[in-house]
Amino acid sequence: MSTPFLSIRDLRVHFGTEDGVVKAVDGLSFDLEKGRTLGIVGESGSGKSVTNLAVLGLHDPRNTKLDGEILLDGKELITASEREMEQLRGNKMSMIFQDALASLSPYHTIGAQIGETYRKHTGASKRVARARAIEMLRRVGIPQPDMRVDDYPHQFSGGMRQRAMIAMALVCDPELLIADEPTTALDVTVQAQIMDLLKDLQQEFGTAIIFITHDLGVIADIADDVLVMYGGRCVEKGTKQEVLRTPEHPYTLGLLGSMPSLDGPVDVPLSPIPGAPPSLLNPPSGCRFHPRCTFAEKVPGDLCSTEQPALKLTDGRGSACHLTPEQKRELFADYATARTN
C-alpha cells in the first residue's frame, strides 16, 4: 500500500484562554492521496478551519498546543521550524481563504501579489514573475490578463478576486491545496464556475485538495471523500457516495435533513437539528452530539452521555456512534421515508 501524501494522526489543537482550554480539535485522523479531494463538512466551530490552519502552521504558538502527527509527503510538520514551514507554504502547500477581498492587499496590484509569491519561492526576476502572474490569471479564466494584471483588488468583481486568489495559491504548483469555504460569498453561477475551475486545475496539476464547507451540496459536487466533523471530532468518514446516500451518524443525517431535496416532494418541510453546537471549553461528556441527537434514547442506559464512541472504520468507511448497524438501518430508513413521502 502506498504512503498517503498527507497523513494526520490523533491531531489535537487546544487553545489557552482566560476562561480555560478550548479543545478545538480533539483527536482527529485522516489520510489524503494526491489527485483526490477530501471534503470536510460541519457546522461553524466544529474544528474544520483550525485543522487546516494547523497543517499550514498558521496558529499562534504562544497560546496553542498541538499534539499528534501531521505528515506531508513523509515530513513531520508539527515539529518543523517556522523557516521550514515558510518554505512549504505557498510552495508545496497553499490555501484559498473564504474572503478574497480581506486576504488581498488593497495597496498592491493583483499581479504584484501573485508575482511576489512566485519570486519568494523561485528567486525569479520581477519580469519573469510578472509573466508568470499573467499566465496564471489566464489559466484561471481572467479576461485580458495582460491588462488586468495591473489592476487592484477593488477593481475586480467578487468572482474575479476569488479566481485571483486561486491563481496566487497555484502559482508555485503546490501539491496540496486547502480551500476554506472559497465560494460562500459568491452567487450560484460564479460558485459553479469556481468549482469547475478547481476540478480542471486538479486534473491538470494532480493536486490533493482539502475543501472545507458547511454546504453538503458543494460537497456533492466537488469531493471524492467526506469527513464529517462535530465538536472538534470526526463523527463519520467515507466516500462521497457512501456518506451522502447512506449516512451512518445521526449528525450527518441531520445535516442532510436540513437541506432541501431536489428529487423529493417540494412541500416537505426542512428538519433543522435542534439545539446548538457544543461549547469547546466545556464539551458534553460521552458523545458530544448526544444532547441534540434524536436517537440517543434508543441506546440502552446512559451510554451516549457517559462513553465517547470510537470511530470504527472498515476500508475507510465508518462512524462514531453507539447505535448498532441494525438500528441505523431501521431508524435512518424511517427518517428517509418520512422525507420523501
UniProtKB/TrEMBL annotation:
CDD domains: ABC_NikE_OppD_transporters. The keyword Membrane applies. Residues 8-256 form the ABC transporter domain. GO terms for molecular function: ATP binding. It is found in: Cell membrane. It is a peripheral membrane protein. Keywords: ATP-binding, Cell membrane, Membrane, Nucleotide-binding, Transport. Pfam families: ABC_tran, oligo_HPY. Belongs to the ABC transporter superfamily. This is ABC transporter ATP-binding protein. It comes from Streptomyces spinosisporus.
